[in-house]
Design goal:
The chain is an alpha+beta fold and 289 residues long. The chain is 29% helix and 25% strand. Strands 2-1-5-6-11-12-4-3 form an eight-stranded mixed sheet, with helices on both faces. Helix 5 crosses helix 7 and helix 7 packs parallel to helix 10.
């Protein structure tokens, strides 16, 4: 296998990993093993459609056909000539995904590298060597036993939409909300739309796909308006909660900029990034604070 990492933040890029023979063999075996969590003939393949957000243990979701973005496709087609990951702590600290590529990119295995699995020289990282602990003096990664997506046969297979969205933008594969969906959003007990007719009139493909996701994922049923407001504050986002008939409701604003930020948050397009604790937008990995 060839191994690549995706780097986000201010220095977005894809790099190939240089591995010694022993580690190469171990990683090959490890990624083949963990891929069976998603790539297993015993799993029932379920097309990614409305309400298929939470497969059970016997199912796996699939988008097919799926076109890989260039920042993933191009490196897998030119592994030998692709840039190698440099020994740069800032770059290593911004890695958000590790990819194992087989047969020239015909099959890809993805593992998200979240906060806490990027090792920085500025932290005191220690490991047990024989009978004594020793300090790690170089930046690195902790590779675990999870597989978050597999690409094969022109299809993308996954179990968790949230994890997948940390790797790839799949918004174009969402359905678009209908007029009735927008009415249903406004009818939610926990939601107040400032102007339903205006939202319908101005809502393009971007807004409608986000509304569809928010409704289908049932995020508004799982969290109260005040819980959502508190969570958003961690990303310096100020969601408005308004009391209507003595019931707290999350405001879906008219202002285009505020509407965009509110929908992006509800669609879970924000996440806590590298070791620094910086916050990022999922998919684009653009730093926001």
């Amino acid at each position: 296998m060839d191994f690549f990492v995706l780097v986000g933040g201010d220095r977005m890029a894809t790099y190939r990993l240089n591995l010694d023979r022993a580690l190469q063999r171990e990683l090959d075996e490890h990624f083949e093993t963990i891929s069976h969590h998603i790539d297993d003939d015993g799993l029932e393949v379920v097309p990614f459609e409305r309400e298929n957000f939470h497969p059970d243990d016997s199912e796996v979701l699939r988008i097919r056909p799926f076109d890989l973005p260039d920042f993933i496709f191009d490196p897998t087609q030119n592994a030998v000539g692709w840039a190698v990951l440099p020994n740069d702590e800032e770059i290593i600290g911004s890695i958000y995904c590790l990819i194992a590529s087989e047969r020239g990119g015909e099959r890809l295995i993805f593992q998200v590298i979240p906060k806490g699995r990027r090792l920085s020289k500025s932290l005191l990282n220690v490991v047990l060597s024989r009978d004594s602990f020793v300090k790690l003096d170089a930046p690195g990664l902790v590779i675990d036993d999870h597989c978050h997506a597999v690409y094969k046969d022109s299809g993308l297979y996954f179990k968790s939409l949230w994890w997948l969205k940390q790797i790839i933008d799949i918004s174009e594969y969402y359905r678009e909300a209908t007029e009735a969906d927008i009415d249903n959003l406004g009818a939610e007990d926990s939601v107040f739309i400032e102007d339903v007719d205006s939202l319908k009139e101005r809502a393009g493909q971007w807004v409608r796909t986000r509304i569809a996701y928010i409704l289908d994922s049932k995020v508004l049923e799982r969290f109260s308006p005040n819980e959502l407001k508190e969570k958003a504050a961690a990303f310096n986002l100020d969601l408005e909660v308004r009391s209507v008939d003595e019931i707290d409701k999350l405001v879906i604003p008219n202002d285009p900029k505020m509407l965009r930020s509110t929908l992006k948050f509800l669609e879970e397009e924000y996440y806590s990034g590298p070791i620094t604790g910086a916050n990022y937008e999922a998919n684009s990995k653009r730093r926001i604070g």
